[in-house]
Amino acid sequence: VSDIIRTIRDPEKPNTLEELEVVTENGVEVQEIGEEEYLVIIRFTPTVPHCSLATLIGLCLRIKLQRCLPFRHKLEIYISEGTHSTEEDINKQINDKERVAAAMENPNLREIVEQCVTEPD
């Protein structure tokens, strides 16, 4: 799972989320919850406590994992506790299927997400 998300690029900077230490191996947890089904929990740390792109980063993590995980899974994505001023609201948003689907219907937002999750050549 770490290998999948480490290459996601930051929406504003030319760096990956791993280079910025937004995602780390310690923030990835995988638990077996059924036969060949897993719970994947990701905790990420925005670069600043008022990061306006935290929701977008959470969306990128979700989309990339939904596309790339080779097994059945339930995905939970959270901001590391105490690292963002509105972490509760953002956690609700990035774990709400309807909100995620609505966000991905926005062509501008979808284009940004695609740029962030697409592997460099």
From TrEMBL:
Record's keyword annotation contains Membrane: no
Gene3D superfamilies assigned: 6.10.250.1280, Fe-S cluster assembly (FSCA)
UniProt keyword annotations, A-Z: Chromosome partition
UniProt keyword annotation of Flavoprotein present: no
PANTHER family membership: CYTOSOLIC IRON-SULFUR ASSEMBLY COMPONENT 2A (PTHR12377:SF2), CYTOSOLIC IRON-SULFUR ASSEMBLY COMPONENT 2B-RELATED (PTHR12377)
Protein family (similarity comment): Belongs to the MIP18 family.
Protein name (database record): Cytosolic iron-sulfur assembly component 2A
